[in-house]
Specification:
heterodimer, A: about 220 residues, alpha+beta, DNA polymerase, domain 1, 5-stranded mixed sheet, 5 strands, about 30% helix, globular, disordered N terminus, B: about 325 residues, Enolase-like, domain 1, 4-stranded antiparallel sheet, 12 strands, FAD-bd_PCMH_sub2 (chain B)
Chain lengths: ~220, ~325
Amino acid sequence: MRESWDSRERIAGRAGRVTGQANTSGDAAAPPPVGADLRISVNGAWHALTVDTRESLLDTLRDRLGLTGAKKGCDHGQCGACTVLIDGRRVLSCLTLTVSLDDESVTTVEGLGLPGAPHPLQRAFVEHDALQCGFCTPGQICSAVGVLAEAAEGRPSLVTHRDRAHPGGSAEPVITGALPLDEEEIRERMSGNLCRCGAYPGILAAIAEAARAGEGAR
Amino acid sequence: MRPFAYHRPETVAAAVAQAGGADVMYLAGGTNLVDLMRLGVLTPATLVDVTRVTSATIEQTPGGGLLVGAGVRNSDLTAHPLVRSRYPLLAEALLAGASGQLRNMATVGGNLLQRTRCSYFQDVTKPCNKRDPGSGCPARTGDHRNLAIIEHSEHCVATHPSDMAVALVALGALVHVEGAAGARQVPMPGLHRLPGDDPSRDTVLVPGELITAVELPALPLAARSLYRKARDRASFSFAAVSVAAALQVEQGVVRDCRIALGSVAHVPWRAGRAEDALRGAPATEQEFARAADIELEQARPLPLNGYKVPLARNLIVRALADLAAVR
């Protein structure tokens, strides 16, 4: 099918990063795939790719770039196993269309640390036995990196907002600045990452330790 | 997923022009649209990515409100100091929705236009009048535990899933849209429509119209407000029932209030009858309960979702009592 990606539709360069019209010569019920040429930055390296417009960032990472850390758990945005960082913010790669990336930088779990020099959160997950099967772990770690950054920026969670900024809905001054992460905060902020093994106690302990050390935020 | 062409225009005018054809949809955060395309529920031939054309800024308006660009991410809106201090119900509604990752992706415009999570709508092997007009509504006699109790129709019992929209309905936000016929402003409530005999249309927008911004009115009352959400689990779950409420009490009497309910109807539901019943009434739990009962007299629960009526009543009473600090 990829032969049908007409080279006419491949337009490189920023000004015209548009993939062209759907092929009108094909069967209306099953139109041919549409390709797009683009460059994406992953873990500090640029890659030139031709992608199907339907391709998710998760599939690009795993199937094109060999970065199999991010996992396909549900492919519907419900489990968090595919979590990566785009420009430092945690997002779901399964619901991100690769073609929609716009010069942003992607960081996967492979880009956080190296076997001999793990990221502080990776080290904390090992030390606290924060996994059993490990399938959700890359997503958990990328999400936790995002959580620590968000708290350091003073971004609230529902727990923060209710308990600290506006008890009882009163209009008290909003607290800004870095927010401490207790267990309740971590549970709320990490609720988008599921663990079927139930390693949550270890995950909580690992993130809490990294938060205390103040070294997880990137 | 059906193959589609992808465009990323630089201006609203270009986006609107490109959306003029058949089977064209706008793409913003993609958190609902990409999923529905993967499920085969939506099959656009062309996506017009509006990330570059919709504003991602939050500006103060001359009238004392805020103008929120449609491209503002949910996480950025809820973290904004003026949203947190002036509109706590909106900040809480956003924080009560989805997960941290999804809030980083989802935009204000997309949040308003997300589709129902009714299981029949999302399953292309099942009939659904919203997805396939005229095919029927199995939810009426099937799985409707989390569906509508107010103003549903024989054609559709779906609920609108947004938390943010409930707060915006309570605030009376103004939705700025642009289309081929020009720009206009749609007040909330009023953006979303009841199912009636055409549940395929969620909103009053016409094809090709693009939400460009949401204007929050100056509303001092909203500084004392909150959002409460009852759900099956403590986090990352759609509401069973939610309430957005703001209350102004002077000398023990309700001077003004705003109340809206989520997950009870095809639209984010402004509880206007309860509001009318409360203005001028003593700020007591008994009066809050009386107002809630007046609102919920119009509830017509289905066999499996009758629980939502007392849940909505109790949420309204608790929210107002907390705001009045009379509990």
